[in-house]
Amino acid sequence: MKLLDLPLAEKNMLSALDFAEKSNDLISIGCAYRGLGEILKSSDKAEDAAVYFEKAITAFQKAGDTYGVEEVKELMSK
């Protein structure tokens, strides 16, 4: 993302999400959704980013990760 190759970043994060879902690891799923939200927010796609941020919050809540939830809420408020 720092190189601003946002399409490549999104492609790689979708791949990470696929692996996380296959492993049924809620923390990894939340992290992947958070990452997708950050990428889309950087691409000026705030509405699409919000959908991924909400999915990240849901995954972190299911995992009992309150820190992850708060981190995503902070990203949404920026």
Brief account:
This is Tetratricopeptide repeat protein. The protein has 78 residues and is mostly helical.
CATH structural class: Mainly Alpha
| Topology order in helix (H) and strand (E) letters | HHHH
CATH 4th-level superfamily: Tetratricopeptide repeat domain
Total discrete domains: 1
**Globular, elongated, flat, extended or rod-shaped: what is the shape?**
flat
Major β-sheet annotation = none
Report the CATH architecture: Alpha Horseshoe
Task: Tell me what you see in this structure.
Helices cover 83% and strands 0% of the residues. The chain is mainly α and 78 residues long. Helix 2 packs antiparallel against helix 3 (46-63) and helix 3 (46-63) runs antiparallel to helix 4. This is Tetratricopeptide repeat protein. InterPro entries: TPR-like_helical_dom_sf.
Break the fold down into its secondary structure elements and pairings.
Elements: H1 6-23, H2 26-42, H3 46-63, H4 66-77
